[in-house]
Amino acid sequence: MELAINLIIFLLAGYWCQQGLMVYSFWNKNQPGSGFIPVIFSVILMAFTLMLILKEIRKILKNRSHETRQATVLSLSDLRPLLPVVYTLAAIVVFRFAGVVVSMFLTSFVWLLCISKVRLAKSLIISVILTLMVYLIFVMWLRIPFPRSIFGF
Amino acid sequence: MQGFSVAFTFSNAMAAFIGALLGIVVGAMPGIGAAAGVSMLLPMTFKMNPTAGIIMLAGIYYGNMYGGAYSATLLNIPGDTPAVVTALDGYQLTLKGKAGKSLATGNYASFIGGSIGIVFLTIFGPLLAEIGLKFGPAEVAALIFLALTSIGWLLGDDPVKGLVAACLGILLSTIGIDGASGNARYNFGSLNLIGGITFVPLVIGMFGFSQVLEMISDSKEFKVDGVKKLSIRESMLSWAEFKEIFWPSVRSGVLGNFIGFLPGAGATTGSFLAYILEKRIGKKRHTLGTGEITGVAVSEAANNAGAVGSFAPLLSLGIPGSSTSAVLLGGLMMWGLRPGPLLFESNPDFVWGLISSMYFGNILCLVAGMAVLPFLVSFLKISKRVMIPIIMVICLVGSYAVGNSIFDMGIMVVAGVVAFYLKKQAFPSSPVLLAFVLAPRLEVSMRQALSISQGSLWVFFEKPISAVILICTFALLLFPVIQKLIAFSKARKN
């Protein structure tokens, strides 16, 4: 996992550096160009991540057999937090089409009832209070123009 | 005095009161932390005037320092990282049946530390601003460079990972229009990214939504052991106990405040150092860690003083001392205020109003901190299962509210996922945020300095201030390398 993260950062820094040099110009008429800061810091970032990558590779080579077993276990547990990510993305879609009140009520209620396994009555009370707070603070007080549902809220 | 008249207007006093109360509540919730609390509540201040808004956010910050001790004492889970040290003695006191005494000690010490911090801020804030006025672009660039290096260095266990995080923050800040040339950079052809990554969704994602992911990955529930009920009367300290904690609290407050002045060090480093100092010179040094009220006092005094101390570089130089003050800096910029040496001259009402509100807010925190004691046990019983959807909804609504954009909600989710996986691999997320906030100023100052000098790098070494700052920066950068070389040569000898 750490190796993958470092590799992604390294590649990202490489892209920043390439764009800074080739597209945005590093130095222009005795003055720094738009790519000046991105290039400097992407080079520093590449150097640091390269250090971390080499360290990680050395570690993996040292305990090769042990690491392979551990990596399989890690990859399964690492995927668990993706549940709220998928759930939140779905909530954003509902928010776009059903409006803030309906979507926020559903987001909290469905999670409490189905994932947190909270009793129906308690889930309902918490969701209603939370939605009411959101409505009062963000819609009534702050007057944020949220998307609205067919019901007009 | 002018500041007090600003602070005591009804709206500002209410903002301080609500901020302090919310700060205590958020701080008491295990694992949320000040940065997450301030960032999630930042959208609530959009419609307030800047002074009231920042007074409320500052109240949340120092209120959080009070609240952090509660879960550290009762659950052995610090509400925020500065309260880690509080848990050492606080939880031992709970096991001995003295939870109330520990919490009251935390409140008194927080008040003492906070008061020291505020007095020092009142005295040294304007002095620091005067020094800041002498800074040209080269000095400003050098100072920000030092801040970025020390931030990466001080936060997290591995300096290299801290520096990687800081560099990531800088690269993220380059997305959007380049202030000097007006060209769009690194926006991947997206119109939504032309203005850059919006600060509030980024911060809510990094500190709020990532918390949801952390709670999911660690399914262990919090449990309040051994305490059924707390009463204010039983929690009050005797005169002898108060005398026992007073001087250590003052000592730690001064130390914590000094540490808070340093960019990146913040309240956590202050509380650790204060505890170490007490272990060396304190009267109870041999029994510290076994459940001593002095242990709780030194940690709490130092972290409150540190939190207030971090306002000095923020207001005077525009350099945040911690991730929470970086969120506050983002808030200030959102309201069109530019923290720095000129802020004391251009917006005296705002600066002195904020500082004066802290005197008032600190007293409020002490009173509220004692008043919530009887309700604390039942409050801390709120399950993680209930907290997760609540935080999720606040994150979603808050990230939309800043720019009325669904794209910002997406930024929040992505930032949360990235911060979570980085944190899992021990990359601290605070340097990302601090660098993201500081980098635009670094770029402007650096390019101004180089334009003045016609591209000569000598401009950074011509003036003694920038030269000294840069030497310190390089020393900090080289230190991990030298440390490794020494360790390597020692290993070879053995």
TrEMBL record, chain A:
Task: Write down a Pfam family by its short name.
Answer: TctB
Q: Which UniProt keywords apply?
A: Membrane, Transmembrane, Transmembrane helix
Does Transmembrane helix count among this protein's keywords?
yes
Among its keywords, does the record have RNA-binding?
Answer: no
Q: Please report the stretch or stretches of sequence annotated as the DUF1468 domain.
A: 5-147
Q: Transmembrane ranges?
A: 7-27, 33-54, 85-112, 124-144
Its name, as the record gives it, is DUF1468 domain-containing protein
